[in-house]
Amino acid sequence: MSTQSPTALAPRELAAWKGMLAAHSRLLARLDAELERDHGLPLTSYEVLMYLGDADGGHLRMGELADRLLLSRSGITRLADRLERQGLIGRRRCENDGRGLYAYLTPAGRDKLAAARPAHLAGVRRHFISRLAPDEIEELGAIWQRLLADEAAPA
Predict the structure, then answer these.
(1) Which secondary structure element, helix H or strand E, spans residue 62, and what is its range?
(2) Residues 135-150, buried b or exposed e (16+ Cβ, 10 A)?
(3) What is the domain count for the chain?
């Protein structure tokens, strides 16, 4: 028989959960503020440029980009509209599916990514990696892989 309450988390469970939420929120806020201050680029915009820059062929379908960023279809459209107005990305129709769109980096987007990436990675190291021992980094990576291994798992 389980002693776990169906309506409350145990103190250590709650501490782990709240800690993860707070750490995530604070880390993203710091990284976002640094990118915005130093490169005029919000973190979500940087992530679009990063995913496109790292993609095979240098482009991604808009739906795939939305999935990677955990955005709705309308959310990625608004973000892409803004980045396209800034000249950082472009969009073109998919050759084999007239309804689909690919997003791709423009030369200005590649330049912006090249300028912002070292600063962003330095921030990740400063605010996150440097606060963990090498074995903790490895263990935490394994934990995230285990938690994300089956995204279809019931909540």
Answers:
(1) helix 62-69
(2) eeeeeeeeeeeeeeee
(3) 1
Q: Residues 6 or more apart from 73 whose CB is under 8 A from it?
A: 62, 63, 66
Q: Do the domain assignments include residue 115?
A: yes
Q: If you count them, how many residues does the chain have? A: 155
- What's the CA dihedral at 122, 126, 129, 134 to 10 degrees? 110
Per-residue pLDDT of 14-68, as tens digits, reads 999 999 999 999 999 999 999 999 999 999 999 999 999 999 988 999 999 999 9
Is the residue at 42 inside a domain?
yes
Q: Which residue has the tokens 């002693």?
A: 3
CATH number at residue 129: 1.10.10.10
pTM of the model: 0.86
Let me know: does 80 contact 91? Beta carbons within 8 Å: yes
In this structure, is residue 100 part of a structural domain? yes
Contact 103, 62 (CB under 8 A): yes
Alpha helices in 2-59 (DSSP H): 11-39, 43-54
Question: What residue numbers bound the domain in which 73 lies?
Answer: 31-148
